[in-house]
TrEMBL record:
It comes from the Bacteria. The keyword Signal applies. Residues 30-62 have a biased composition (Polar residues). Residues 23-73 are annotated as: Disordered. Residues 1-17 form the signal peptide. NCBIfam families: GWxTD_dom. It holds the Pfam family GWxTD_dom. Keywords: Signal. Residues 281-453 form the GWxTD domain. This is GWxTD domain-containing protein. Transmembrane segments: none annotated. PROSITE patterns: PROKAR_LIPOPROTEIN.
């Protein structure tokens, strides 16, 4: 499905006795010096995690929506839906749905195939806990309403504001006509904008297609635009900060108190005009310098969400490596050769198994970057960590501020749940933190060990 630059295996090495894998705990005792120019963040992008003693309980929701692509199957199916709304004015909103599909040959569908095989319906509720219908109907699938972007489809439609409603939950149902199978997406709507992102989003260079993601490649030209095409100046802050990767799901370690981030560059841009950023980093767009919430956007290298540079390929191995292994990989002057030795030593010198394990692991890293990038790379997020090690959840239960990922069978347990709580964040709206439990340890380590022995080679 994807093409990857895989590490060439240079030599077969003898097997080494594996250590018990665990995350190396980074030194967090040092405090950053106060820079000449800083911007105080209203909420720490990497806040403290708390640990409790009880097992996470699933939440109930209007509908469950997969947040990660499923494996290719022999059916015509919708495997994920990502939604975004933009206020047109106080009377209507524009809805954008990015839809990932598969068909029997394993490839994404064309617009024509989707139109032939699927119907789309919607219903609006006042809230997740209120089933009173504010509105419902069918979304016509026409050449004007749906377009193909890379390997995804973009469905666009407009909804009028229900009388008297300030907020709503939009539940979209995409049904395959042959089997009746349904895929659901729930999207909170605000009909009176309270944030910049209620009105503005990142579009391609033509201003026609929203990107529905929190990153652009630094070389790309894009627009930040609203539906009416309003001209507006935005103040931009650029941060060149290396954010920490996720902590283990069973740790009780807490992050330090909120901190400031160094401002590397400031600039002013205009909405609805082409923009090209000066380089990689985290960019923060605000309409006013006193605003508490704006639009955060990562500018990445030209290969992202793929990772190909040896020094960058080392970093995601944190989730399946010992502290000693990571230290050796980080301290080497020949990262490429060190990576070859690392994988071959884990796979008892079996070159073919090593290649398959490399492909499987970095496929997941790329998918995590594509799906879960926020103010930092997707693989560094809590969701990205769980996705890389365990894969796509079997189902997802969502409420307004919570997602529960349910895995039906892992490590001989009938069901394993991972609960993610939405946390307020000034850069992005989809910042979630995992609720950590010590009871995850007997689940986590055997799956990590399966990676280390080459048992996972999807």
């Amino acid at each position: 499905m994807r093409s990857y630059l895989l590490l060439p295996i240079l030599a077969l090495l003898a097997a080494c006795a594996p250590q018990k894998p665990q995350f190396p705990m980074p030194d967090r005792s040092a405090t950053a010096q106060q820079p000449a120019r800083t911007r105080t963040i209203s909420s720490d992008p990497t806040p403290s995690r708390t640990n409790t003693s009880s097992r996470p309980a699933p939440s109930t929701s209007v509908g469950a929506a997969p947040t990660a692509p499923e494996q290719a199957n022999s059916e015509w199916a919708v495997s994920s839906i990502k939604g975004k709304f933009l206020d047109i004015d106080t009377s209507a909103v524009r809805i954008y749905l990015s839809i990932t599909t598969t068909q029997p040959n394993g490839q994404p569908m064309s617009v024509e195939t989707f139109r032939e095989r699927f119907i789309v319906n919607y219903v609006m509720y006042p809230d997740y806990n209120n089933r009173e219908r504010l509105g419902y109907g069918n979304i016509p699938i026409t050449p004007e309403s749906i377009q193909k972007i890379d390997d995804r489809l973009m469905l666009t439609f407009t909804l009028n504001r229900p009388k008297g409603a300030t907020n709503a939950i939009l539940l979209t149902e995409i049904s395959e006509t042959g089997t009746g199978k349904k895929s659901l997406n729930d999207l909170p709507l605000r009909f009176k904008p309270t944030k910049l992102t209620d009105q503005y989003a990142v579009f391609d260079a033509t201003g026609r297609l929203p990107q529905l993601r929190n990153f652009v490649q630094a070389k790309d030209t894009f627009m930040i635009r609203d539906v009416p095409g309003t001209k507006k100046n935005l103040y931009v802050y650029r941060y060149k900060h290396e954010f920490d990767p996720a902590l283990p799901p069973m740790t009780a370690t807490q992050r330090p108190a909120p901190r400031t981030l160094n401002i590397d560059t400031t600039m002013v841009v205009s909405t609805n005009e082409p923009i090209r950023l000066p380089g990689e980093g985290l960019y923060y767009f605000v309409a006013d310098t006193t605003d508490q919430f704006g639009l955060g956007l990562m500018a990445t290298d030209a290969r992202y969400p793929k990772m190909t540079r040896p020094e960058r390929l080392v970093k995601p191995l944190l989730y399946m490596s010992t502290g000693t292994e990571i230290a050796e990989l980080n301290n080497t002057k020949e990262a490429k050769k060190a990576l070859d030795r690392y994988w071959l030593s884990l796979m008892a010198g079996n070159e073919e198994v090593a290649k398959q394990a490399i492909r499987a692991y970095y496929n997941r890293v790329e998918d995590a970057n594509q799906l879960f990038t926020t103010y930092k790379e997707g693989w560094k997020t809590d969701k990205g960590m769980i996705f890389i090690i365990l894969g796509s959840p079997d189902r997802v239960q969502r409420s307004r501020d919570r997602e529960v990922w349910v895995y039906n069978r892992r490590n001989n347990l009938s069901e394993v749940n991972f609960t993610f709580n939405r946390k307020q964040n000034q850069f992005v709206e989809d910042h979630y933190e995992l609720v950590r439990y010590s009871e995850y340890q007997p689940i986590w380590y055997p799956i990590v060990e399966a990676w280390r022995t080459g048992a996972i080679r999807e």
